[in-house]
Structures are given as structure tokens and as C-alpha cells.
Amino acid sequence: MKHLTLLYHYFHPDDVVSARLFSDIAEGMTARGWNVVAMPCHRGCRDETITHPLSEAWAGGSIDRVWRPNLKQSSGKGRILNAAFMLAGWGWRAFTMPRHKGEVMVVGTDPILSVLVALPWKFFRPEAKIVHWCHDLYPEAAVAEGMVKESALPVRLLKRLLERAYRKCDLIADLGSCMAKLLKAYGSPAKTATLTPWALIEPANVSLPDSEVREKLFGASAGLGLLYSGTFGRAHTYEEFLALARLLRDSPVKFCFAGRGNRSDELKKAVTADDTNVTFAGFAPEAELENRLTACDLHLVSLRPEWTGTVVPSKFFGALAAGRGVLFAGSPDSAIARWISEYHLGWVLTPENLPRVAAELRTLSLNPSALAALRERCFATYRTHFSKEHQLELWNEELRALTVR
């Protein structure tokens, strides 16, 4: 039996998106014949005072948790110290764990710089295959945020250390072509692949909007509802969306921002009394999320151009799973922009094409058959290329290919 070890900060029963994804991988690979051991920390994600058993059986595999102190992830010092405890714990496991023929280790990107564990792991277990699933790229994200300068000595030294760690990996899995481009700057690993996240909610078919939820979000007169749902943080932009909304004030196209994050207040202050086609809604609990995601006609997704490749917004995949098109504000070089263009999933919004997109949305709001065709196309594209089942099959193929070399 093949042995798979998953190194990620959080795991079942935490419900944070990334923990759910790694839990899905554990279940999916167990069902495909792998012996899976997950090694998260023993503390809860949203409430760090909650502790989980250090060792337990789960879903046909096992969880072997790493102890770490009760330090807050929300503080810079806490994040760094938590990362140090997790890396030390994983490095110790690399030394003490029983060795197996054909074993593979997958490490994510939480805590930050987790890929550095490839250095002790390869030293103590040279026969093991190492896979890095990159969800966000540091220090590149910190540079994009303006926290540090790319030319700073600590950044340059860190990149040299990361280059060594990346070269120890047998497979580096990115989330799209834009991230792959940034990773290539560290040199060419043995193998690369694009393995995208999947939606946490996957409806069985394309659902029509719930009229009650839709009216709460957009009002009774909405001919076309555009929804931003999820976290609205430093990596995201709203300026293009607001400019577009103002071009469409006299139309049946309505915008709703339903989320939270450190830029939400900034957006609310930017909206004026004249922006009558813009509304706000609170964060939806998971039990209500499917009705929320399907109440709109298009989903708004954004990423500041300087963040291109450092992250790939996961809400893109949730929109497609719900059978909804995407209006993306970001760089045309982003993987999301390329998928939108390749599969005809919506629009890529830039300051230059605002009038054209506004005109096309006016037309779409009056063409129910075109909107229905867009929904079906998005849903079919998700099922074919991005669904959980499809991605887990790709994971199984990539992992098994490593063990036969």
C-alpha cells in the first residue's frame, strides 16, 4: 500500500476552506488505496483555545497532530512562532516516523514558508517523494502588500533558502499559469502540475435563483444581479466594480457586496447616495451559502494586478460550481482571466474596457436565453475541469506517478 503524509496547519474538524481541501484529499486518496496520515496542529483554527486529540483514526486513515502553544495567528509574532513550532514538529516527525517504501509527503502553504520543511524531510528521508501544493506565495505576497521591498536583504536571503527547498521537491503543484510563472523564477523542479482547489459546495445541477434571497440582495427590479461574496481583503480591488456600477445606474443591472474583510469599510465609504444600484449584505453562514451563491447571475471576483500569481481567488471555482458566470477585475495575465477567455465564462474587467463591458451587460440583462447558455457553460466547465472528483483523480495520478520512478 502507498503511504501519503499530509502536512498542513489545519485539518478536520476545522471548517476553514484550506483545511476542508486537505481533508478532502485525505478521504479521496484513502478511497483510492492510499494509507493517509495527516499532521495538522492540535489547536482549532477559528478558536485557538479549542484543542483536538493528538492522535486519532479518521475516515480510514489517521491524524497525528503536532502540539503548538496557544499563540494567535492574527498577530505577526504569533504567525511566525506558530510556523516555527510546526516546522520543528514536522522536521522531528521526518526523523522519528517509520519509513515506508513508496511514501509521498504533501506540504501546503499554511503556516507561511511551510515548504522549508522539505529540507529536513529530504535529509532524513531521502527516498521519500515531496510534493508542495502552493496556495499562496511568500515573500511575494508580502512584497505585493507593501510590507517589505523585494530588494531588502532579508527577502533576498529568504528567497535563496526557499530556492533550496523548492529544489528538494519532486513535484510542485500550482493553482494556475500565473503562479507557475512566479515559481519558475526559483528554478525548474523535477515536475510541475496545476492542481486547482474545488468548490466546497457542488450543486447537482444549475439552480435557478431563489426569488426571496435574490430580492433581498438586489431588490425586486433587478434584471441582472452581480454578487461579490466572500472575504474582501488587501489583495482585492473594488474600484473597477464601482466605476462599472456607475455606468449602469439607469439599467436593471444591480450590484451586491456580501462579505467581510479589512477593505469592506473602505468600499462602503466609497459608495454614495447616488449609487442606488449598489447594496450590501452580511456574510452568509454555510447552511445558507448555496442559496446565496445561486441568487445572482454573475459573480464578482477581483485581484490587484500586483498580486497576480501570489494567490488565485478560490471564489472563482465556487461561482462556476453554482453555474454562474464571472466578472473578474484583475490582470489579463492571471490564470482566472485566461480561463474566462478560453472557456467563455464571463468578462475580464479593466479600466480600459469599462464602457464595452457595461454595454454587454445591458444586453445580457435583456436576453434570458444567453444568460441560461452562460450558466450551462460555466457549470459544464466546472464539472469537466475543476470539480472535486476531477481534481482528486488528477491528484491520484500525479502521486502514483511519483512512486513508480
Helix content: 40-55%
Counting structural domains, the number is: 2
Radius of gyration: 22 Å
Alpha-carbon distance between the termini? 16 Å
Name of the CATH first level of the largest domain: Alpha Beta
Question: What is the oligomeric state here?
Answer: single chain
Structural class: alpha/beta
Unreliable runs: none
Widest sheet, order of strands:
3-4-2-1-5-6-7-8
Structural notes for this entry:
The chain is globular. The strands form two sheets. An eight-stranded mixed sheet has the order 3-4-2-1-5-6-7-8, with helices on both faces. The protein has helices spanning 17-31, 76-96, 118-124, 140-145, 153-168, 177-184, 211-218, 239-247, 264-270, 286-293, 315-321, 335-343, 354-365, 368-386, 388-403; strands at 2-7, 34-38, 55-58, 61-64, 103-107, 129-133, 171-174, 192-194, 224-231, 253-260, 278-281, 298-302, 325-329, 346-349. It is 41% helix and 17% strand. Helix 14 (368-386) runs parallel beside helix 15 (388-403). The mean pLDDT is 92. It folds into two domains: 2-197 and 388-403, Glycogen Phosphorylase B (Rossmann fold), CATH 3.40.50; 211-386, Glycogen Phosphorylase B (Rossmann fold). It is α/β, with parallel strands linked by helices and 405 residues long.
Keywords:
eight-stranded mixed β-sheet; single chain; six-stranded parallel β-sheet; alpha/beta; Rossmann fold; 15 helices; 405 residues; 2 domains; globular
What can be said about this structure in brief?
This protein has helices spanning 17-31, 76-96, 118-124, 140-145, 153-168, 177-184, 211-218, 239-247, 264-270, 286-293, 315-321, 335-343, 354-365, 368-386, 388-403, and strands spanning 2-7, 34-38, 55-58, 61-64, 103-107, 129-133, 171-174, 192-194, 224-231, 253-260, 278-281, 298-302, 325-329, 346-349.
